[in-house]
Specification:
Layout: E1 2-3, H1 9-17, H2 19-28, H3 36-46, E2 54-58, H4 64-73, E3 77-82, H5 85-97, E4 104-108, E5 121-127, H6 136-146, E6 147-160, H7 167-177, E7 181-182, H8 185-194, E8 198-204, H9 208-221, H10 224-230, H11 235-253, E9 257-265
Parallel strand pairs: 2-3, 2-5, 3-4, 5-6
Antiparallel strand pairs: 1-7, 6-9, 8-9
Helix pairs in contact: 3-4, 9-11
């Protein structure tokens, strides 16, 4: 697992409390993860998430994943946990606008110590966000604690691909993204099995590189003004951000960064 030791929760909170978080939403949409709706539907189907179930979204951001599950998969109740006040407030407002406040609860907390009761949900959910968590072992243990016996852990995440990152690649990538570390397919499987879970799916979605191509194309061809407005028309910053996105694009096409999809079952 590649690591950058000087990044922690406060760095992630700063990103999603400021213009960089708004930029991610501009280019990726309200569902701030690779593949958006298609990715969410794929994960829900592979995890057999459906009507009448209760779930928890760890690192829920603005709650788009929970609203998707309520509206599109008829999930009955969702708990969302996130440590950034701005995105939680935004999520509550958007949830209220859709009339879903009775079905979705937000909890402002560290996802490794949510404060929620044991065995409260049928499934734990995450979409491209656990890469921001320092202690992934503790996060996985918390997800498993919250799920009922026989329940499901289902998540996607940005992970290292089969082609390893060089140390230089890793330092630049993790520093820009504010990831404290990055797992790989085997690493997440090991954390799940060490906690007694059975692996159902662990795969590369193959969505990462095409989606990064799309984001850069949109920024260059359609959303340039909108992006500049968010960063107060700071052209040097725009050029820096564009350069780092192009670097991520190179990593993606080299097979060094991928979107992993995981579904695991907690023992009964």
């Amino acid at each position: 697992m590649k690591t950058l030791g000087n990044i922690g929760l406060s760095d992630v909170q700063a990103v999603y409390s400021g213009p960089k978080g708004d930029l991610w939403e501009l280019i990726m949409g309200e569902q701030i993860h690779i593949g958006g709706f298609t990715s969410s539907m794929d994960l829900a189907q592979k995890a057999n998430v459906g009507a009448g179930m209760m779930g928890v979204d760890l690192c829920c951001c603005n709650g788009a994943g929970m609203r998707f599950l309520i509206k599109m998969k008829n999930v009955s109740k969702m708990h969302g946990v996130d440590a950034t006040e701005k995105v939680v407030a935004r999520g509550k407002a958007r949830t209220q606008e859709l009339g879903l406040s009775d079905k979705i609860e937000f909890h402002l907390a560290d996802v490794c110590e949510s404060g929620l009761p044991d065995h409260i949900v049928d499934f734990a959910w995450g979409e491209d966000a656990w890469c921001y968590v320092v202690d992934k072992e503790k996060l996985i243990a918390e997800a498993i604690r919250l799920v009922k016996p026989g329940g499901t852990i289902a998540f996607t995440d940005w992970i290292e691909g089969k082609v390893p990152l060089t140390e230089e690649d890793a330092q630049r990538f993790l520093g820009f993204m504010k990831f404290p570390n990055i797992q790989d397919l085997q690493g997440y499987q090991d954390l799940l099995t060490q906690n007694g879970c059975g692996i159902i799916v662990a795969e590369n979605t193959s969505r990462f590189a095409p989606c990064v191509d799309l984001y850069l194309n949109m920024l260059n061809r359609q959303l340039t003004y909108d992006a500049l407005k968010i960063i107060n028309f700071d052209m040097p910053m725009m050029e820096m951000l564009g350069g780092e996105m192009q670097f991520i694009q190179q990593l993606a096409h080299a097979g060094k960064i991928i979107q992993g999809l995981f579904v695991a079952r907690k023992p009964k």
